[in-house]
Structures are given as C-alpha cells and as structure tokens.
Fold:
Amino acid sequence: MNHHLAAFALLLLSGCAAVPVAPERGDTVEVMVLGTWHMGNPGADIVNFRSDDVLAPARQAELAELSARLAAFQPTAIMVETESPRADLLDTGYLEYSPPTLSEVRDETVQVAYRLAGELGLTRVYGVDTRSGEIDFFPFDKVQEFEAANGLDITGPMIAQVQASVAEFNASQATHTISELYALENDPAKLAREHADFYYGLFALGDAASQPGAQLNYGWYARNAVTFNKIAAVSKPGDRVIILFGSGHAYWLRHFAETAPGFTLVEPAAYLTD
Structure:
C-alpha cells in the first residue's frame, strides 16, 4: 500500500505534471468516453469481469490517483450508466451521495464518477442510460433461437473469445493499477476489434425470412444512440464531458462523440498513464 500512497502523493505534489493540461474551452463539447468494468461484480452480462475488491486500501489509493488524473481534464459534467427519472436527467444517486459512501459501495459509478464529481464540486452528474425502448435493445434470445432452429453454433466460439479476453483482464489486475487497467480497457484498437468480432460476427446469423444478427446490432446501436442523444440534450458548448459506461458501450459512444456535429472525442490514454 505504501508505494501506491507515495505515488499518489508525488502526483499531487507535482501538480499532475505527467498528465496533459486541458486546452482552453472552445465551442464544441469535448467528450472522454471511459469504458469500465463493473466493480461490484453484479453478474448481469453474458460474460462478466471479476473485479478485485476496490474497497481494499491499496485499490482506494489507486482510485484516488485515478481521480487526480481525470481531474486534469477539467470536466464540467459527468454522464453515468443509470436511468434518471428527472426531466433534467440529473442522477438521483449523486444527489444523495456523500464521501463516506466510498468506503461502503463497490460500484464504479460511486468509486469513479461520484468521487471525481465530489472532489471537483460538480453538480452536473447525469443519468443518461436507457434500458428499454420501442425495440428490444439486446435480443440475444432471438439469436439463440435462430441458432437452435438451424443447427448452428456461431455464438459459442464468440462467447469463448470474450471469456478469454475477460480472463486476461482479470489476471492483469494482479500487476496493474486501476489507472493502467482503464488504459488497457479503453485501447481504441481493442475496442474496435472486440466490437467487430462479436457484434459484426452476428451478421452470419440470418436468412431471407429472419435476421436476428442484424436485429441485435441495430438494437444495440439504438440503445447507445438514445443515450448519446440524452448526452447532447444536457451538454453545452464548451463543456468537457466524461462518460463512464460499461466498456461494451464504448465503441458506439466513441463513434458518436467523434462524428456528431458539435462534439470532439478526447482519448483518455494520455490522462491515464505517464
């Protein structure tokens, strides 16, 4: 633990010298997409990460270091993977947040987003997720039904590949800090490759009558498009926004931030590693 605390102290004393200084604000919305694993191990995905205990003292020191690094981006708003019932989309969890929660809750929304917003005195933390809509956002059951009806096994090897990637990440926790893990998880080439291997690999499932692979792709696109539309609704010119969402969302959220008029994508890597 001591070397983590010493590193964090050095980072603070140096004024985060190794981290780039955010440029002057312009007319666009600068967006940093920070794809994350789920630190509380909720087990809600097809393949799940197994996070170390982030309440352990060493990991808490690393999370404090991560917060200092992200603060150098000078964010003006943070978007998190919750659904807000409010018309202004403010995240209701953050409205009730207090720093002692950091020693109690393992969720990444609390440990990363709320910690950073609280330290910076931000009031603009928004819950911009959308779990249901006009179409099924993730009709994986239709994919499996098509496979069973046609004697296919396309998703089996794909899931095995995802499991191997997750196992590699799980093992890397033993040798990497949380900031370094976020750098690994948000490597653009990795995100693009894994998105193509899984989502675009599903285009192999379909015929003249049924296209479940395409349905899952446009459903997943729709969920992220609706999410980004909410982000656009609460963003203002000159904002610097951090989006903290599960890494499976990162491909499309990065795409929108990079290509939508009025937005600029900011790579997180320079803020995560020296």
About this structure: DSSP finds eleven helices and five strands in the chain. Confidence is low (pLDDT under 50) at residues 1-17.
